[in-house]
Design goal:
The complex is a heterodimer of chains A (about 120) and B (about 110).
Chain A (H helix, E strand, L loop, with lengths): L4 E3 L2 E4 L5 E6 L6 E7 L6 E7 L2 E5 L7 E4 L6 E5 L8 E8 L10 E2 L3 E5 L1
Parallel strand pairs in A: 2-11
Antiparallel strand pairs in A: 1-3, 3-8, 4-5, 4-9, 5-6, 7-8, 9-10, 9-11
Chain B lengths: L8 E5 L4 E6 L8 E7 L6 E6 L4 E2 L4 E4 L5 E6 L8 E8 L12 E6 L1
Parallel strand pairs in B: 1-9
Antiparallel strand pairs in B: 2-7, 3-4, 3-8, 5-6, 6-7, 8-9
The chains are: A mainly beta (about 120), B mainly beta (about 110).
C-alpha cells in the first residue's frame, strides 16, 4: 500500500508524559499536513510543511507541540507534557503541488491519543 | 476563509441516489469545491473536486451551480458502505490547508 502511513495507531499515555507520532507521506508528495480531530468535530488544521520547511502553524499548536520534517520525507509530531485535553485523533495528510491549484490531499488513518 | 453550509444529517435508502447539498455563497473565483468523506474511525477520504464545470468520477458526481454559490454531491446508488460524514470544503491552493466544517452525516438504510 502506498498511502499515508501513521504510527502508532493508538497510544495511551499518562498526563505529563511526552508522546511522538510519525507520519510517512505518499512517496514524492512535497506537501505534508497535520490535523487534530476530537469526537464529533471535523478535523482542525495544525501545521503544514512544504518539503522540509514548516510554512504554516495554527494557533492551536501550543508551545508543547512541535513538528519536524527532516529531509522533506517523513514527519514527526511531538507533544510534551501531555494534558487530558490533548486526547484526540492526530491525522497526517500529504499532497503534491507545485502551483497553487486545487490539488488533492490524501489522509492517513490517524493516530489516536488518550491521555489518562 | 470562505465558508460552506451543509445539512447536519441526511438519510437515504440503499441503492437509491443521494444528493448532498452545499451552499457557499461567498466563494471566490480561485476556490475549488472539494468533497471529502470520513467513515467511522478512519481518516478523511477524497471524493471529488471541481472548479466550474460538473465533474464525474468512479465514486460520485459533482454538480456546480452556474453562479458557483452552491453545489451538490451525487452518489448514484448509495450502499451501506457510503454511510459517513461528508464534508464540502472550499480550497484555494494558496490557503495551504483544508478547512473542515461539521459536514453532513449520511445514514444509509437497508
Amino acid at each position: 500500500d502506498t498511502g499515508v502511513s501513521q504510527d502508532p495507531r493508538h497510544k495511551i499515555t499518562k498526563r505529563g508524559q511526552n508522546v511522538t507520532f510519525r507520519c510517512d507521506p505518499i512517496s514524492e508528495h512535497n506537501r505534508l499536513y497535520w490535523y487534530r480531530q476530537t469526537l464529533g468535530q471535523g478535523p482542525e488544521f495544525l501545521t503544514y510543511f512544504q518539503n522540509e520547511a514548516q510554512l504554516e502553524k495554527s494557533r492551536l499548536l501550543s508551545d508543547r507541540f512541535s513538528a519536524e520534517r527532516p529531509k522533506g520525507s517523513f514527519s514527526t509530531l511531538e507533544i510534551q507534557r501531555t494534558e487530558q485535553g490533548d486526547s484526540a485523533m492526530y491525522l497526517c495528510a500529504s499532497s503534491y503541488g507545485q502551483t497553487d491549484s486545487g490539488n488533492t490531499i490524501y489522509f492517513g488513518e490517524g493516530s489516536w491519543l488518550t491521555v489518562v | 476563509d470562505a465558508k460552506t453550509t451543509q445539512p447536519n444529517s441526511m438519510e437515504s435508502n440503499e441503492e437509491e441516489p443521494v444528493h448532498l447539498p452545499c451552499n457557499h455563497s461567498t466563494i471566490s473565483g480561485t476556490d475549488y469545491i472539494h468533497w471529502y468523506r470520513q467513515l467511522p474511525s478512519q481518516g478523511p477520504e477524497y471524493v471529488i473536486h471541481g472548479l466550474t464545470s460538473n465533474v464525474n468520477n468512479r465514486m460520485a458526481s459533482l454538480a456546480i451551480a452556474e453562479d458557483r454559490k452552491s453545489s451538490t454531491l451525487i452518489l448514484h446508488r448509495a450502499t451501506l458502505r457510503d454511510a459517513a460524514v461528508y464534508y464540502c470544503i472550499l480550497y484555494s491552493g494558496s490557503a495551504r490547508q483544508l478547512t473542515f466544517g461539521s459536514g453532513t452525516q449520511l445514514t444509509v438504510l437497508p
